[in-house]
Amino acid sequence: MKIKRQKQAKKTISFYKYNFGFREPFQILIDGTFCQAALKNKIQIKEQMPKYLMGEVQLCTTSCALKELETLGKQLYGAKIILQRFQVRKCPHFKEPVSASECLLSMLEETNSHHYFVATQDHTVTTGLKKIPGVPLLYIILNTIVLDKPSQASLDHVQAVQLGELVSPAQQQSIRTLKEEQGIGQKDGERRGKKRKRKQSNPNPLSCLKKKKKGVPTPPLKKTEQEGKRKRSRHKKRKVEAGDGTAAPAAANT
After folding, report:
1. How far apart are CA 86 and CA 34, in angstroms?
2. pLDDT in tens, the chain (254 residues)
3. How far apart are CA 90 and CA 60, in angstroms?
4. What share of the chain is helix, strand, coil (3-state, %, to 5)?
5. Is residue 95 helix, strand or coil?
6. N or C end of the chain: which has fewer CB within 10 A?
7. CA 104, CA 28: separation in Å to the nearest integer?
8. Which domains are assigned to the chain?
9. Maximum CA pair distance of the chain?
10. Any residues with CB less than 8 A from the CB of 55 and at least 6 apart, and which?
11. 15 near 21, Cβ under 8 Å?
12. What distance in Å separates the CA atoms of residue 7 and residue 28, rounded to the nearest whole number?
């Protein structure tokens, strides 16, 4: 019987993981009625809950559930002691407390965006939970913790998502993250107000060079002119010397 119950719990948990994005550690909202039933049936919630759900858990409650147990008196003193050991989550009824059933339902809102499991023995709470898709329900029966099968609202929601009529919470979250990365979800004013900072870059070394003037001829070198003159003068001297030599013998003959 225990093995069969564990298999059913594993199947139900995988249903909520795949279709509604539940992840460990599982957050479990507990009220006074569940603690009273655990005390009566000698169930250690902190020890048995992780084993039954096969994963890490965070046991939590609300201030409204604690105050309800305080008003009920000594009959539920033991349940109050157990419930005080769990984390207290903030609820919108800080100034004006309401009943535990009303508080738990308000924590889930319409879509159970925080992925809460709810552990309760209150019939009012269980009736309200079955109308909200994606809320796993835990209760105690025959000295054991039982995870209820998915409600009809959860099954209808999954079927609508598969048919393309709705978008699953996991898909909604992925769409939000993509929009944040691309900046699509921001308002136009916020986009325009933010300016991108330009990186400081070093100047281009080619732009620092002096520009060459176009169309101006380069002057000839002086050395080449002097060398040309010298060559010409040497050539003339040779011709003069040659002329003197021819004239001298002619004079001797006369």
Report:
1. 13
2. 577 888 899 999 999 999 999 999 999 999 999 999 999 999 999 999 999 999 999 999 999 999 999 888 788 899 999 999 999 998 888 888 899 999 999 999 888 989 999 999 999 999 999 999 999 999 999 889 999 999 999 999 998 888 876 665 666 666 667 777 777 755 544 545 555 666 666 777 766 666 666 655 655 555 555 555 555 555 555 544 445 554 444 444 43
3. 10
4. 55, 10, 35
5. coil
6. C
7. 11
8. 1-157 (3.40.50.1010)
9. 171
10. 13, 24, 25, 26
11. no
12. 20
DSSP-H helix ranges across 183-218: 188-193
Question: Cis peptide leading into 220, omega within 30 of 0?
Answer: no
Contacts of residue 184, Cβ cutoff 8 Å, sequence gap at least 6: 178
> pTM here?
0.65
Give me 82's structure tokens.
Answer: 């157990």
* 117 close to 27: Cβ distance less than 8 angstroms: yes
Tracing tokens 């000295």 back to the chain, one arrives at 143
Tell me which DSSP letter residue 195 carries: -
Q: Within 13 A of 202's CA, how many CA atoms are on the CB side?
A: 4
**C-alpha dist (Å) from residue 127 to 89, 117, 124, 254:** 22, 15, 5, 159
